[in-house]
Sequence to fold (351 residues):
Amino acid sequence: MAEMAHPSPEHGHGSHTPELVHQFETVEQQREAGTLAMWLFLATEILFFGGMFCSYLIYRSLHPQAFEIGSHLLEVKFGATNTAVLICSSLSMAMAIYSAQTGKSKKTVILFLVLTILLGLTFLGVKLYFEWYHDYLEHIVPGVGFAYRPEWGSNGPMVQMFMIFYFVMTGVHAIHMVVGVGILTVLIIMAARDRFSSHYYAPLDISGLYWHFVDIIWIFLFPLLYLVGGRYTGGGH
Amino acid sequence: MSEHIVPVKVYVTVWASLLVLTALTTGVAYIDLGVFNTVAALAIAVAKMLLVVLFFMHLKYTAGLPRIVMVAALFWLAIMMSLTLGDELTRNWTPAVHAWGSGVLLPLLPHLLR
Fold:
């Protein structure tokens, strides 16, 4: 027992790869622990976003007409395009991990990571310029010159409420995207320094979980915000 | 590394299915289905979520704790949603409290005292 409590300085390091930290027996165990930790974090994220989805559902059920008017202020073409962009970025992320797993060159891994970042930035660009900036020009950003329109009638305040939900939910999602772009940047630097191999790619794998999760949030935001009550009645763009 | 390696073909098939489902959910929104517009939108979103979770996030190939965490998270979400919505959406089912004194109890009082 004494040897276990006071491990010798040489403790196993000779046979280890440098990425294996002290508390784990094998790289495999280390990766599984990391994966589990990311899933636990994502569980808290599900409930974090779930709270917003829940309050959204309450307000939508209480004010269906106002939410339909609000939804029709958004451009389906941008929402749908961005959904496709994120799905492509998820494929690119999966391919980056696959390339590391199968021992492809670091160039290939970096290429897919850069592609993932570019698609992420495309999403943010569409969001910022084509959507949020134009919403600002149209005076439908709550708190920044929001203006009721006569055709909304008494629904005005609750149309504004819809837009608050829209900006908070897409805003928090966008913050997650920015964090994701940061993580991907770190991964590119790590890949460039030859840190990954077919034996060690856990950071890619675990960051991938996060990136795909952010994609899933958007998969729900798109129909819930852009397609409320259908688009077949007037008001659609 | 013993982790299952998902073939590229699977990734590409999932990616194509996700794009088709995105087009489908967008297209369906332009057809009048009444309440089923919302049902269809949510059903397609759940299908897309499952595709991403099972294949891109490897849950199909990851046994044990991560699966339990995922199911537990969805279960907690269901608790939060059902209790909150169960309260909010049923508030008008019973008469307002102020009516109980005069509106409900007093007319009943002679019967109760008989």
Observations:
- DSSP finds seven helices and no strands in chain A.
- Residues 1-14 of chain A have pLDDT under 50 and may be disordered.
